[in-house]
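Troubleshooting: if your tokenizer reports a length mismatch, compare against these two reference records.
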Amino acid sequence: MKRQAPIQRSPVDRISYRFRQFAHIEGVSGMLLVGATLLALVWANSPWSASYFALIHLPIRLDVGNFTLNEPLVLWINDALMAVFFFVVGLELKREILIGELSSFRKAILPALAAVGGMVFPVFIFWSLNRTHPAALEGWAIPMATDIAFAVGVLSLVGRRVPLSLVVFLTALAIVDDIGAILVIAMVYTEQIHWTMLLIGLALVGVLALYARLGGRWVILYLALGGGVWLAIFLSGVHATIAGVLVALTIPVRTKMDVRDFSDWIHHLLDRFDADIGDEDQMIPTRAQRAVLTEISQAVELVDSPLHRLEHLLHPWVAFLVMPAFALANAGVFVNSSLLRALFSPLTLGIFLGLVVGKPLGVLLATWVGVRLKLGKLPEGVVWRHILGAGVLAGMGFTMSIFITTLAFSEGGGHVYRWGGKLASAVWATVDPATMADLSKLAILIASTVAGVVGYLLLRRAPTSVADEDWLAMPPSDRKS
């Protein structure tokens, strides 16, 4: 007979427990992203649109001694809040490489090949349509991205027809995809580097790495020095979100105590705790029992890693605050007649076809090549229709694609941009970066919607898979095949 915990959960306890489960489902994050995106689009095209653009361009000033940062709200979100997002991405990346689905060649090869194929094909399609348009080519990396929150959100709608192994495959694919996006952001979308500040930032990363090497596990120190890394990288000219990844890679993933030793030690401590229980009803622990409780809390900390603690701590904040705030600040496109006339420009077609056609084609062909060369085999319970469906869902670029758009078409003067072909609405047009950014965002939103619907329909009709566990209730770090 299963023993029940000797406590009565209050309604608040039960609600908070459900909320913690709720917070670990990327599908919920996807729904929030959809809501924030729709709100931004409606607000930006409503009679109150002026208030939307006034809000996102509201200047916010930070003064620290003689140092001043004065940036609009949208840049604080894109440079500071998104650094937290990339920090969590970096934690997931390190976990998957060291102990997860990318920890061995056999596990990593197929999703890695699929991710590379899913990056190369969209870029080729975009380049082939925009190769004569230098201004548009600035956005060549836009269609190579995948938004895992949206993808898993659609998988959650499909339900138990989706095998857990496909979720693991798509998650690993998205992690490799994120590596590609991070490298592109670091190497391509950096115009000028201030080497002194960059060296200071890297030196602080080195300090964190040394602290981790010496066994340091104080999370507050990692976060405090991480703030210094962010500021130095921000001032160096390299995009500040890279700081989040660099700091995340220094966080220890190994534990100080293995689970067997933990179990033995906890049993020993509980025996000591029980030995001090009196005959009468006892509501308050004795001094000896409080000492045991302290040792138990220390053991719990040692059996868990700082990386896992930070990942579980920050995941709800990223899902419920950072990503919706990013969508709200960046998805508000004012759709006017000139924007609609340019909807069939090579820029928008390159993004749309790259995400909707290039992504699934690249994922499917690269996976097929890997299987044919016997580098790996399809995950258990997964058929080729599942791989095609996952490839289509990988075309939901949304967050990362919009983020790259903000970098590609951020500042500068007007660009002379020629749209050619029968579908063109104009022969010559002078398009400023803001307009190109709006065109790109519109193409991303349309492509992500189409990819989500088509991917859902493909997987909805795929062979039924009865999962052993309800993977939707699992935190991302616990989803193992």
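Reference record two:
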Amino acid sequence: MAELVRSTVAQSMVIGAENALPGELRVLRAAERSLNGERRGLRAVLPFLGPAFIAAVAYVDPGNFATNMAGGSQYGYMLLWVVLAANLMAMLIQSMSAKLGIATGRSLPEVCRDRFPFPVVVFLWIQAELIAMATDLAEFVGAALGLNLLFGIPLFSAALLTGVAAFAILGLQAWGFRRLEATISGLVGLIVIAFGLEVFRADPSWGSVAGNALIPHLDGTESILLAAGILGATVMPHVIYLHSALTQKRIVGANPGAKRKIYHFELVDVVIAMGIAGLINMAMLTTAAAVFNSRGLLDVGSNLTQVSGGLEHYLGAHSGVIFGVALLASGISSSSVGTLAGQVVMQGFIRRKISVFLRRAITMVPALIVIGAHFDPSRALVLSQVFLSFGIPFAMIPLVMFTRNKKLMGNLTNNRFTNVAAYGVATLIISLNVFLLYQTLLPR
């Protein structure tokens, strides 16, 4: 009997309907043909592409703009290997999150709720909500800053317009998950084009790019601190929760064999999406190195307004405008994804759900307060990344625990190599983030 699949709309992601919409039914039929072997090659993968692209937005959010531009301007090409390593770690982490949703039909917060004592669940929920708010603050401020750079709109008014844009993107859920995935992927594509133009206009030393991407080296405590910041800005706890929900009910296998095939297709999705995110991050750092570090402008990257002006001055051809467009696309898309992650967290940990639009309105408030108080937006981005470091262990440790559990995961249980790699990555990221927090909070 052919392996069957079914597709429903995940309540925490789209509209909470039990029956798939027409567009989703087309994806269902295509996926079933792929699982049956009727579709091969690229056509077989297409129905499964999408979830990782939504997750990948968190890896090119405004926080990444801040850390990558600072890294390139201060240390040139030296930290490219850190960006590459962070991206490979992201592939491992996001593949495990996707696998958990496929194997169990439940999101990471839901599995935590089922398997941990109630006080632990409540603690995990509260910290996840705080982390989601910090994430949303960075993304919202980044989008507002992008509007300010492009049109000269005051930051507070730009923040209100950002909210309108985020509402519009979230409203696409009414037409099914494919519309939302296509829109988010289109915004990621816009960032790819923008930094593709920037990096080739910057005319970097490609030999230095290749050498520094492959050979690890650091130069003193400050470079270690910045490397930890790049890792901290790359691995986002909220998207670890979200990815498991994106795959849990999108296309569900009727038996273990079908689930394993679905996971292999989703693994391709992860590699492509995270690979694109990694190239964007490397292009950011490379551009900053070629434009600012090569001219001795080591402090420009710490302020995104100065970055935009510097690109316009040294590269011309509206390079500052292109940077602003990329920042705006990053902020709006990642803000929408952050709101979806918040829904997954609340519904998963405590079985409560509020309107995604109400949640968007509530999470706008901290950003509006920060902007209305005339707090430096670039500084707000950096501080939000530091705060995010607190949440990484509470997402990663349960993820590794659950994906190595054969009774829970069945034939999708982590193999020994994956477990060793996961333990190593978790230990490294947690250690570096502890170091980052210590160095950041230590009185000087």
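Descriptive notes for reference record two:
- The two ends are 68 Å apart (CA to CA).
- Residues 50-441 form a domain with the Amino acid/polyamine transporter I fold (CATH 1.20.1740.10).
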